Protein 1
Amino acid sequence: MTNMILDHYEINKNTAALLPAYHTDYQTTVWEKERRFHVKKTPHELIKEACLEGGADYNGRKAAVTYKTGVSIKVPIPLIPQEQIYAFPTHSPKLHECHWLFYHHIKTIQRHPDTPTHTIITFKDEKELLLHVSYHTMERQLQRTSYCITRFTPYLTYN
């Protein structure tokens, strides 16, 4: 596990989650497979930068998803669709408590056994994240992202 503080972080295929941090030295905790980083930029800033790396700006990606899926709140974002990197927010991206989760790293979601307003996310590396978000909301976000992926995956062409 790494606890270094980075000025910059580039979202990649290993990025599993961007968690808002309540710390004076950094604003995001990045979860990757087997590693953690702290980054001075906010999760939303990192998402916007990844969109640009993927060939479009955040507002364009968001508008395209809304156009193709009808989803207009807590919109999943195809950050780098050609690399199958899709993320979705747990809250409105305008809120500080918004976490960004990366669809292809999620193994399961489960209701918290004692608190119905909480959900346990298990990632493929078996790490768990407790979120202050209802199971219903998380399930809906996963479904929206899955639909987004099917709408943005290029169709194979046959000659």
Protein 2
Amino acid sequence: MERKQFIQQAATLGAGALLLRPFSVLAKKAANSDIIGHGHFKYRVNKEWGNLNPSDYPVNDCHEMVMDSQKRLFMLTNEPKNNMLIYDKSGKLLDSWTLKLTGAHGLTLHNENGTEYLYITDYDLGEVYKTTLEGKILLTIRHPKYVGAYSDCDKFKPTETCIGPNGDIYIADGYGSQYVLQYTAKGEFIRKFGGESMVKEDKFKQVHGIALDTRDKANPTLICTERMKNCFKRFTLDGQYLSSIYLPGAYMSRPVFDGEMLYTGVCWSALVHHYLTPNSGFVAILDGNNRVVSNPGGTYPRYVHNELQEMVQAAPIFKHCHDVCVDDDKNLYIPQWNAGKVYPYKLERV
């Protein structure tokens, strides 16, 4: 489907319409083999990795994961009993802590002059927190109305952050008013860009994720997820729109970079006319030219006349992939949203 046609049809449906098609129509039965993916990016699925006693360490939605310099894996959940679970790569629990958040959603790791910090978004409270790796809050960014950037009636439900080359904090208001807000490292407001639109290229319909793209060292850019239009959008660091990367059929979560590769969890899979498949999802992997080279759990990425064809879930392995964490051995860890409170799956590179 052409991107223009998709946008026109989506606009006809309306901003909030999410039509569901029965799962059996869209997905095949799981393959006998537990190896998924394509080309040089194939993986063995390990669903038992990280499983814990839910009475002691419950999870609700497993939203995002990052790996620190000590190769510890930090997993964020919106279960207030233990917002953060910290694993080693074998799946052993090392530690846990909580901020008692019910809307914990976005998790960013940033190395600041040799010290690592976490940035956590909470869409329920409408706040962003900078913390130590032990969970001590060092900075809180509140509703933008307090700095005159939003009106009192504007919603602020932040979903993601990224940190610029100079330490500026970028916040994606993905469940709120669809802006990206830029702050200094001290939390001083600089600007906002975007806003809500289903058709304008420099605006968003669910700016769910954001990341800093440093693959071109001389020209770092922002990559923003526009989930409802199945694309990533590229912006300059001061908020000027550059281009879009269209992934037809994929309702993506945030972009995650590892070297030249770009990974994303696909939270929903869809066929033509953007009917969303219940309990669907897969992982998409793009190369340095932003071409999809593998879809673990999804259909083979096919290009016709240089146009990527629609991608859907191929086997019911995942339910709503919400993030991808890449370790130093190129294994993947997949947290899932609304998936029956399962712990993250590990995809072991083969």
